[in-house]
Specification:
The chain is an all-alpha fold. The chain has 9 helices and no strands.
C-alpha cells in the first residue's frame, strides 16, 4: 500500500469512527446496527466491513483510541518538571476539555464496555488502571500524609475519576460554564475542599 493510499485509508477509517461514535452515543450500542452506521457514513455495509469486521470491533476501535489518547496525555503531563498541583490542574483541565470535545466517545467508554468480548474489555480496563495509578502518584505528591495509607490511595483516585467521568452524563458545552472553568472548579474542590473554594 502506497503512502497516499495508506493516508486515504486512515482518513476514511477516522471518518467512520467519528460518525459511528455519534450514532452509537445517541441510539445506544445495542440498538444501532452496522447498516445504521453505513448509512451515517454514506457508504455500503460491505464497505464498512472492509474496515471493521463486526460492530464489536468498531466499538473497540472507538474506545481504545479514545482512552489511549487520554492515557498518553496524562503520562505527558505527569512527567513535566513542575509542581504536583500544577500537573494535577493540567491533567483535570486536559481531561475535561478532551471529554467535552469527544463526548460521544467518552459516553461509549462509560456505557458500552459491557458489549465487548472479555479479552478486549480487559485491555481497556488495563489502560484505565494505568491512568488511575498515575493519578494516585500525583495525589501522593500533593498530600503524602493522607496518601500514606495504602487502602485509601485507589479510592481517592477513583473519586476524582468518578467526578470527572460522570459529569458528561449531564454537562453540555453550550451551557453557562465552559470546560476550562469546570475543570478549574473540579481541581479546587478536590484539592482544597468545598469550604475553602474561592468565590468568584
Amino acid at each position: 500500500m502506497t503512502r497516499e493510499r495508506a493516508d486515504d485509508y486512515e482518513d476514511k477509517k477516522q471518518l467512520i469512527l467519528a460518525k459511528a461514535a455519534a450514532l452509537i452515543a445517541r441510539k445506544g450500542f445495542d440498538v444501532a446496527t452496522m447498516m445504521d452506521v453505513a448509512r451515517a457514513c454514506g457508504t455500503s455495509k460491505s464497505h464498512l466491513y472492509h474496515y471493521f469486521p463486526s460492530k464489536e470491533e468498531l466499538l473497540y476501535a472507538i474506545v481504545h483510541e479514545h482512552i489511549t489518547q487520554q492515557g498518553a496525555e496524562l503520562a505527558r503531563i505527569v512527567a513535566q518538571p513542575v509542581s504536583a498541583e500544577e500537573r494535577f490542574d493540567q491533567f483535570v483541565d486536559s481531561f475535561m476539555r478532551g471529554a467535552a470535545r469527544s463526548r460521544n466517545e467518552h459516553l461509549m467508554l462509560m456505557n458500552d464496555l459491557k458489549f465487548l468480548p472479555r479479552p478486549q474489555r480487559e485491555k481497556i480496563r488495563a489502560l484505565e488502571v494505568e491512568m488511575t495509578e498515575l493519578v494516585e502518584g500525583l495525589l501522593r505528591e500533593i498530600n503524602p500524609g493522607l496518601m500514606a495509607e495504602q487502602r485509601v490511595q485507589k479510592p481517592y483516585a477513583l473519586l476524582l475519576f468518578g467526578m470527572m467521568i460522570w459529569t458528561f452524563s449531564w454537562y453540555r458545552r453550550s451551557g453557562s460554564i465552559s470546560p476550562g472553568e469546570l475543570a478549574q472548579r473540579i481541581s479546587e474542590l478536590f484539592v482544597h475542599g468545598f469550604k475553602g473554594a474561592p468565590t468568584p
